[in-house]
Amino acid sequence: MLRQLRSGVEHWPLASPFRISRGVKTIAEVVTVELRQGDVRGLGEAVPYPRYGETAEAVIEQIRGIERDLADGAARGELVSLLPAGAARNAVDCALWDLECRLSGKPLADTLGGEPLRPLTTALTVSLDAPERMREAAAALRDCRLIKVKVDAAEPEACLRAVRDSAPDAEMIVDPNESWDIGLLERLQPLLAELRTSFVEQPLAAGADEALEGFEPLVPICADESCHTAADLDMLARRYAMINIKLDKTGGLTEALALMEAGRQRGFGIMVGCMVSTSLSIAPAFHLAGRADYADVDGPLWLREDRAGGVRLQGGLLSPPEPGFWGSPPLALC
Which of 28, 41, 185, 227 is found 20 to 30 A from 191 (Cα to Cα)? Predict the structure, then answer.
């Protein structure tokens, strides 16, 4: 039976601005894919990321470029030869996973050989701002177990001390988003250790992280922008102790699973992350996040309003989407 493809762009306003070293986001722009086979549909979502040269229009064009392949029954394993790793392949790959689950009547957790999804601890983000505003934002999260702090090179010490003062008991991740150089990273080592930083995520630009080879940090360093697929691991092993797996970088859940397995075999610590997105992006990542050392899947919590039935933050834990939301037995088309 031929499959039908639909794709489109959606805009989801944020409840408050999300600031990192590269800029400010007030709207989450996502690309959605729907694959229909008879009266069953599979859904996928991805976030085009300008850091990797992606735009929503270009991602849509990539997806529509393989419409005939998908109609003729192209499987997930064929996507690697049809699309590069990135947002377009992620949206299609996740839609195919969802379609397979609904057609088979078998939940994805069963297919992956794991237990049903359970609530998990996710990092909650304090976005980049003036130190006093970051102090206030951290105070609102003081009872959370894990906080991720966005910084740049302007005044990282003041920002980090402000957050730690307001959240003295939380585990803390520091994320400069490529904005530091090796000199600043070296100078901040004693501070990072003093503030009980769990790890620093991608401090140097991906194109300049060879400076990490031979560097002995006081806290672990995690690759984000430098880590896309399992093919990167040989290089990363010389520079990082951890990797951040995001489906929008790997090109979907299929490659993300392979990256996690290969990363474990190489001894990397694992974090599963996300872009600012709706719960349709987080639902596939949730199947990885429960197996990771750290989860950073709070993207939908930044939205003014999420998709119905999506993830929920309750008692400091992120609950998975409701049954039938994604990766579950069939839901008939409306």
Answer: 227
Q: Dig out the tokens for 27 from the structure.
A: 């709207």
Q: Domain limits at 39? A: 4-111
Which is catalytic among the residues 106, 148, 246, 249?
246
DSSP assignment of 116-181 equals PP--B---EEE-S--HHHHHHHHHTTTT-SEEEEE--SSSHHHHHHHHHHH-TTSEEEEE-TT---
- Full-prediction pTM beyond 0.85? yes
Residue where the block lists tokens 């009547």? 105
Q: What is the pLDDT of residues 55-109, one digit of tens each?
A: 999 999 999 999 999 999 999 999 999 999 999 999 999 999 999 999 999 999 9
Q: Is residue 205 part of a domain?
A: yes
Average pLDDT over residues 258-269: 98
Q: What are the φ/ψ torsions at residue 72 (nearest 5 degrees)?
A: -85, 0
- The residue among 87, 111, 135 that closes a domain is 111
Confidence of residue 1 (pLDDT cuts 50, 70, 90): low
**Annotated active-site residue in 25, 148, 150, 249:** 150
